[in-house]
Fold this sequence. Notes:
There is one protein chain. The chain is α/β, with parallel strands linked by helices. The protein is built from eleven helices and nine strands. Strand 3 (73-80), helix 3 (86-99) and strand 4 form a beta-alpha-beta unit. The radius of gyration is 19 Å and the shape is globular.
Amino acid sequence: MSKIALSILNLISRFEDETELEAINRATELVKIVEELGYQRYWVAEHHNYRGTVGAANDLIIQRLLENSESIRVGAGGVMVPNHIPYQVAERFGTLDVMYPGRVDLGLGRAPGTDEKTAQILQKSKPTTENYEAVIAELQGYFQEEDDQGEIIAYPGVGRNVPLFVLGSSLSSAKTAAKLGLPYAFAGHMAPYYIDEAIELYREEFQPSRYLSEPHFILTILGIAAENKDEAQVIYQATLQQSTSSPNNEQNANTNYFNQLTSVQKSMIESKMGLKAIGDPSEIERQVEEINTKYRPDELMIVTPLASIEQLRVSFKIFADILDQK
Length: 326
């Protein structure tokens, strides 16, 4: 199979009977593994009021990952724009880029990453209406050289030129990325419904910018690989269990859960899952080839919410071997 850039999106899942620190430590160990395997970037999601993840303050997780790696790009996948003041985002990510120059990414999402009540708390001090494109433009301004700044400067973000990425799963996000000439990361692992139209719109309407001369499309999928297909299916069933967890519960890695459901319940749960590649190496190669042929992503970003660091190591290595990362 032809070489394609591989990256990882980590939700920083916290599983049943483990501490928050154990979840963070697993994420830290994983960055060393995927860097060695040749992955291009490692992003951390932002979620709030969900006991099953510990990525609420993802800039702090990002700093730890950068500290424990040498060359892989690390960033936010993403910063949820409604929850943050752009000036402070520029300060924080500019500071990260000062400490780890040329390795920091900033993905921007327009959803709050939480429930309605929590979103209201997060956005108490912000305007009730805020234009997504205007926020992106404001952030771009803060990262420009000092001569291009106004009276208010986001030290030490000034002049850092931290790369911005538009995140989304809709036509509006695709249109924004195309209009602003920015890379576009589509959340195919959770909401693939508009993927065909979004990709076509992004590529056809893309306007070259000072940041990007041609479209760069990142496709996120769920990926679980194992040495044999039976093991991969068992692990996948545990992942389906996680997808039904209450926000107030840790994620459960019970591999017997799926077998206890009726066929109708199984179908309903699987219908909510997005694009995925599940199986042994031969099955992964076939499924990734199908995804690559149909969507032609410039970069494939893998989400693999597993509790076992060894299972994670095996899974990410199989993807790297198939897609020739070395």
